[in-house]
Design a protein that fits this description.
alpha/beta; 13 helices
Length: 300
Amino acid sequence: MKTKEVVLKARELGKCIPAFNCPHIPMVKPICEAIRDENSVAMIQVARVEWEKMSAESLERIAEEYDKYKVEGHTLLHLDHIPAVDEDFKKVDYMDLLNRAFKVGFQSVMIDGSRLSLEDNIAVTGEAAAAAHAAGVPIEAELGAVMGHEAGEMPPYEEIFAKKMGFTKLDEAQKFAAEAKCDWLSVACGNIHGRVAEAVRNQKKPEAKLDTAHIADLYKAAGIPLVLHGGSGINHECVLEAIRSGIAKINVGTEVRQCYEFALEEKPGDIAYAQEKVYLKTRDYIKNYLYNTDLADVIK
């Protein structure tokens, strides 16, 4: 499968490709098996923060584990959130990380310049996109501020939504897509990330809402498939309407991560038990939340 064509086909069909984050290496196996057993198509992905602050170890280690359990026609390997400036507001050598990903077989990558000014985000994304396309790999970028990864207190969710804090702007989306040359665009429209700081990562996310009319307008402005980060815990009808409005990829992190971690709290050291819980949660998400069962048959 070619990742860019898969995402475009999903958008054409009014479907969505889920991308499951794996901050713990044993999660890769049950997620791949769940995708296969639902006859769906989905991404296995890892973000820099998940090997820096959790136990993913490295992008190479996730790629190695993925190669053991990948399922042809069903699974894809994506590199999530490689920031130009990270959640601690430190500069990152993003080109080194992207080049390492190309070398070990990631089929798509993400550059995150969302903490930069618009012009700097365009410049960073353009540089990363040129390298990705030269390697034959599609690239995702982010515009707007999807909150949650930063240290410190986040404003109450209702305030974020009511004030449209960090929402992606229409005129900026149009300019960004035209100049940065990314293949998909992650947007902010009411979605929030799960917290990654150790003291708060076990907390339940607030049920997020989405400004789906804004998503539709962003899709028209950008003219490329849109991505929804923070896909755990969003109101179900909002998600389905967002997919109809232009979302072609949705990131799922907190829901499967906490499933794994809570299972290990219940039965310490029992990796197989935690993997079974992740397998069942992933199948349920694909079948009953995204309605993506049998997607593999329709995107061939």
